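Extended Data, panel c. Modelled sequence:
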Amino acid sequence: MANTHGSYQIKSEVVNRAKPIMLGVAVLGWVGAIIAYFSNHDQFFSAYLFGYYYWLSLSIGATFFVMIQRQTQAEWSVVVRRLAETVMTHFWVLVPLFVPILFGLHSLYEWTHTEVVAKDKLLSGKSGYLNVTFFTIRVVVFLAIWCFLSWKLYSYSVRQDTNGDPKETKRAAWLSAPGIPLLIISASFASIDLLMSLQPHWYSTMWGVYIFAGGGVSFIALLILIAVWLRSNGILDEVITVEHYHDLGKLMFAFNVFWAYVAFSQYFLIWYANMPEETSFFVNRKVGSWLGVSLLLAIGHFIGPFIILLARGTKRHPVFLPVMAAWMLFIHAVDHFWIIMPVRNPNGVAWGQIWMNIATWAAIGGTCGFFFLTRLSKHSLVPVQDPFLEESLEFENA
């Protein structure tokens, strides 16, 4: 093997320089979130849900990426898989961070108001599913599933670093076989519970896939930026090569096309059927300044990235690719903002309250980032005993 175990370790000075930044972002975010809570109680909970689900979707995307690589026994991705595995473990942080949402259920969800449900025939019919007790049980089960999958997959990987047992690779593949459908189903139901039930009179059979696809493309974008950040600090710069960036760019492009396909299909089918109980979601997002956000999503989440990432050179370019990755993370935030905030502000974007969304996003993201750096420094950045590592180091696109 061309590299030693030590050459795959992150430099302590890099971690010591980055952790205070993440901690500072988290502290400022939590201070802002506390101010937001006392400033506007209801608006805060919508903003908190926005920040929480944004980072949750990235961890779901990371878990899906890891399991797909494990199940297919992909060789090219071995050198970036440990980074994905570390992002995947953010579920352990997101479990306690879910508690504020439980306290905000009454502010967020119409179906928690018993007096409203009693007068609404449709909500009364859904009350067997949409009730606080069953909702809480479901979310706890979802988080338990995700924590279990991420913990087992991560433990198989880091344990192999020391014991070198090839059976760890097989165990990860065996777990991924049932784990992939389990993740997709649980993530789909979670998106219905946490996001779609914000408008309980509306429904879409494509909602789970839409949210899942957005998390997938955004995680690939995050993975690209993490690799670029390491490279800028002289870490793994000869391990994660332009060939790996090329494949990550192709994945980001493919996931984004899939997201756009699902988004358009959902819109087209609802528009064509023209049923009031289905069209309400999109009608509400054509009101006032929400129309501009809708157009930004159509252009910025699909048309622009499609044109730019279609070229082979863009996916291999050291500047264009990370710029597009950063843009995809931004537009993913716009997507979640567009999903959640019109329920609270139906007449248009509340520009004066966007700082609440930024605060909660930074609070949760900074916390996850600090945890990511802490865990990243505990183990090798590359699974050094993986049986496919040599092939990954020598990988070239055809």
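The chain has 18 helices and no strands. This feature is highlighted in the accompanying rendering.
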